[in-house]
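Handoff note, outgoing to incoming analyst
You'll be picking up this chain. Sequence as last confirmed:
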Amino acid sequence: MSPNPPSAFSVDVSDADFETSVLQRSLDVPVLLDCWATWCGPCRSLKPVLEKLADAYEGRFVLAKLDTDANPQVAALLGLRSIPYVVLFKDGRPVDQFMGALPEGQVRAFLDAHLKPPTEAELARRAALQAEPGQAEPLLRRALELAPDDAELLTALAECLEASRPDEARALVERIPEPLRDDAQRALLARLDLAAQRPQGDEAALRARLAADARDHAARFDLAALLAHRGDFAAAFGELLEVVLRDKGEPREAARARMVEWFGLCRNAEVVDRARRRLSMYLN
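Most recent structure output, in case you need it:
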């Protein structure tokens, strides 16, 4: 079994952190403890069912996975005699358990007997965040009516409006207190800043200058800025990489620094990864 958690709703626990990760955490949210071992065939059958349900219930409980062979203290504390053994903790204590690899429907029934049903706000949030891009805006607005301070909803709606209504997008992100903003929210604000300041120059004229002199770095920087302004970071990175390739002095360092700055603004991870690899190759 993989030691890595498959989602934000599933964690691996050990003897060392059992008290904090299971008992204390269950004071805030129910924790479902899955006791397993690598040699246990039924454990391998049950594991994906529990992980699927942890994702499906979206935080209504946390799945905690305990390798009983590697963590004998908790196994002894629970008095384990057979695995898989699954225990639900609430308010710092076990409230129910089952043994064996139950089918998904029975596990759902076990959970539903102890978990509160989702609220209207939770249902609206789930629908909004899972909606297709073209259908998301009205659902996000409805979800924010019910949870106006939800940072993830604010960010998702701001990203929907980034191109069409940048002022409203900025206002949405700025509702998140500055100390609580994450990298994605700061990058969104930086993209809005970039879009608000249209660079000088005409693209056709800049390309004509470069056709006449490929080492006209000023024209290439201006062209890269125009391309980034309209969101074409792949092309913008391509122009800056030309500077890195053709120059060994200050323009090269300026192009490298500009690329690093824009890596944080580009939402396409594949474009960023490709540009990073080429930059590293050109610099070495």
